[in-house]
C-alpha cells in the first residue's frame, strides 16, 4: 500500500519522507534542526506541485524532433528539499532548482541526485544551483554549473560538464513558502522580475507562480501590493476551488484546517 499523502506539519519529525507523487515515490531527506527554513518540507511546495500536476499540460514536440530538444524549462527560487523541482521533472520539464548554499549542501543536492533514478523514463532533468536573491540580477552568472548568485566569496566554476547548462529563457518561474520575512520581500520580487525580463518574448510574458501560506496577512498583502505597484506585475489569485480540486484528485484528503491558509498567485509582467 502506497504511503498516505500527509500535510507537511504532520511530518516535520520524519528524517526521510517517502513521498508519493503521481506514479512514483520520492525519498526526501529533511532536517528539523531549525538551522534554516529551507531544509524541511513546507505546505506551499506540496500544494503548488499538486496544482501543477492537475493543471500543467505537456506540450507535444514538433514532428520529427526529439522530446528532449523541446522540453519546457522552469526555474524555482527557494527549492528547499526539492519536491516541486522533482515533480515538474517527472512531468517532462527541465528544471533549475535553486536555494542558498546551506540548503543546497544539506538537503537539496542530495535529494535531487538520489531521486533521479525514480523519475519516469520520459522525465526532464533537474540541475541544482546556488541562488541568493539578495544579489542583484545584473550580477548573476548563467554559465557556472554550481552557482548563479551568492553573497559569499565563491569563485566561479567554469569546469566543463557533460550536460548542457540550463539557463534563460524560461517557460515557467515558481516559488513557494518564500514570503515569511519583510526584509526578503523586495529581493525576492526583484529576482522574479529579473527572471521574467530574461525570459521575455514578444508572444508572451513568462508566468510566475507564487504559493504562500497566509500566516501574516499584512506581510502577504504587502508583498502582493509591491509586486503590482513597484515591479509592474499583473497579480491574479488562482481560485481556491481550483486548488481544492487538484488536492482532492491527488489523494490529499486533508481537513480544511490543514491547508486553508495556502494561496497560489500568478504574476505576469505587464507590457
TrEMBL record:
GO terms for cellular component: cytoplasm; nucleus. Gene3D superfamilies: Vaccinia Virus protein VP39. InterPro entries: Methyltransf_16 (IPR019410), SAM-dependent_MTases_sf (IPR029063). Transmembrane segments: none annotated. GO terms for molecular function: S-adenosylmethionine-dependent methyltransferase activity. It comes from the Eukaryota. Pfam families: Methyltransf_16 (PF10294). This is Protein-lysine methyltransferase METTL21D. It comes from Trametes pubescens (White-rot fungus).
Amino acid at each position: 500500500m502506497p504511503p498516505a499523502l500527509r500535510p507537511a506539519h504532520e511530518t516535520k519529525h520524519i528524517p526521510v519522507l517517502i513521498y508519493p507523487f503521481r506514479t512514483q515515490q520520492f525519498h526526501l531527506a529533511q532536517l528539523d534542526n531549525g538551522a534554516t527554513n529551507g531544509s524541511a518540507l513546507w505546505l506551499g511546495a506540496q500544494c503548488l506541485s499538486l496544482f501543477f500536476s492537475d493543471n500543467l499540460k505537456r506540450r507535444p514536440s514538433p514532428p520529427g524532433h526529439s522530446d528532449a530538444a523541446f522540453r519546457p524549462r522552469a526555474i524555482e527560487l527557494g527549492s528547499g528539499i526539492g519536491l516541486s523541482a522533482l515533480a515538474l521533472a517527472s512531468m517532462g520539464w527541465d528544471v533549475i532548482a535553486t536555494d542558498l548554499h546551506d540548503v543546497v549542501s544539506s538537503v537539496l543536492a542530495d535529494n535531487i541526485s538520489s531521486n533521479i533514478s525514480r523519475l519516469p523514463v520520459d522525465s526532464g532533468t533537474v540541475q541544482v544551483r546556488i541562488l541568493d536573491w539578495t544579489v542583484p540580477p545584473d550580477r548573476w552568472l548563467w554559465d557556472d554549473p554550481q552557482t548563479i548568485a551568492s553573497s559569499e566569496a565563491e569563485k566561479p566554476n567554469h569546469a566543463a560538464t557533460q550536460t548542457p547548462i540550463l539557463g534563460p529563457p524560461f517557460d515557467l518561474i515558481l516559488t513557494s513558502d518564500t514570503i515569511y520575512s519583510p526584509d526578503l520581500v523586495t529581493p525576492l520580487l526583484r529576482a522574479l522580475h529579473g527572471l521574467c525580463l530574461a525570459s521575455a518574448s514578444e508572444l508572451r510574458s513568462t508566468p510566475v507562480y507564487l504559493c504562500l501560506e497566509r500566516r501574516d496577512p499584512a506581510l502577504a498583502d504587502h508583498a502582493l501590493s509591491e509586486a503590482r505597484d513597484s515591479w509592474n506585475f499583473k497579480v491574479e489569485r488562482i481560485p481556491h476551488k481550483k486548488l481544492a480540486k487538484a488536492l482532492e484528485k491527488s489523494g490529499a484528503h486533508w481537513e480544511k484546517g490543514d491547508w486553508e491558509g495556502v494561496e497560489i498567485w500568478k504574476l505576469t509582467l505587464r507590457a
